[in-house]
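Thread: Newbie trying to understand structure tokens

Hi all, I'm a second-year student working on a class project, and my supervisor (Dr. K.) asked me to get a predicted structure for one chain before our next meeting. I've only ever worked with sequences, so writing a 3D structure as a token string is new to me. If someone could post the tokens and maybe explain what I'm looking at, I'd be very grateful. Here's the chain:
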Amino acid sequence: MNARVSPVAVTGMGCISAAGVTLCENLATLEAGFRAPKPPVLFHTEKPFPVFMAAIPSLEEFFPLPDAKELIPCSRTVQLAAHAAAEALADAGLDLAELPHLRMGVCIGTSVGTAIEIYDYYAAQRSGKTPPLDAVHQYLVSNPAIALAQLLRLRGPAQTVDNACSSGADAIGFGAQWIRDGSCDVVLCGGADALAQVIYYGFSSLQLQSPEVCMPFDKNRKGLNLGEGAGIVVLESAERATGRARRGFVHGYGTCTDAWHLTAPHPEARGLIAALDQAFAQAGCSERDIAFINAHGTATRTNDAAESKFFQARFPQTPFIATKGCTGHTLGAAGGVEAVFTLAHLNRGRLPASPGFCEEDPELHIAPVSSPTTVLGSIAMSQSLAFGGNNSVLLLGKGG
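---
Reply by user tm_fold:
Sure, no problem. This is what the structure looks like when written as tokens:
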């Protein structure tokens, strides 16, 4: 984990969230600073906190995949993952018919995944009813990694990572390792998560949801807005990627659990610092090489305070952006979605203003970019913090 490693090429990227059904649409929404959370519509609630819902178009029409009709019984999380994966594969220029013949793996991060998307079935069972088994059948075919591997007829390893809100970043870190150790020549990896009723009420019970649109790092922030989506990348070995367009590189990955609190990061960001040092050792770089940072930026009091202390200690002059003001907190998908955003901003050489940030908090002593900012450099960092005290860092390089 601590030895320097070779960078892994990113050859394709895909993204779907409330900000858009493609990466291009997501970036345009971020540039415009457009924010449109709504009350949840997938389930009834007497506490209508605003959430960021994704509009999932017909996959067969938008990005044809072999036997896409097989997704019909799958969960919303799998549909989100498949949509972003299809865009990433098209972006990489991979022939879908050739995928079964490649040494290709799938690694998808999610939070609680599909197990709680069938809440109505559980509720009916507990009330003594005998509901139809359709929901159970949906659950049995909705492991995100396995569902994608079966859909694409892949023969390589398939792993679903469930590490709360760092899962998407972890999946990319694991995928890069599969390339480096020779387990795969191509890996489809990232994160996907759909909004679910149990999650909604869980965050409500923790008093972490904002009654208004969220404001990461802002003085007047009141909590997070939940969201849903998927961010997927295609990773390839250096040999396969030679002579082809590359969207970027995975230079380093680090992860550490600080074991401080079930739902809050260590106030001194100790776990995040340890994860950063691991990633730096892999990438062979240091703080001075980082052009900008994509912060986790949930808009909760404890998360933003911990990240701010981390930035003051290690990156006092490095610009950073928080993007959840446009997407909401997509939980297990966040690390994948934000890794894709990080690479896109790095390649463009420009950061948009952080959506939702208006007024600097004097207690934080640091603030995200509040206007379009030029990016100088070729390496950026995306960080993800998770319940259970986990902290994960990706160091991503500019394409070329």
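A couple of things are worth pointing out once you decode it. The first helix runs from residue 23 to 32. The longest strand covers residues 8-17. Feel free to ask follow-ups in this thread.
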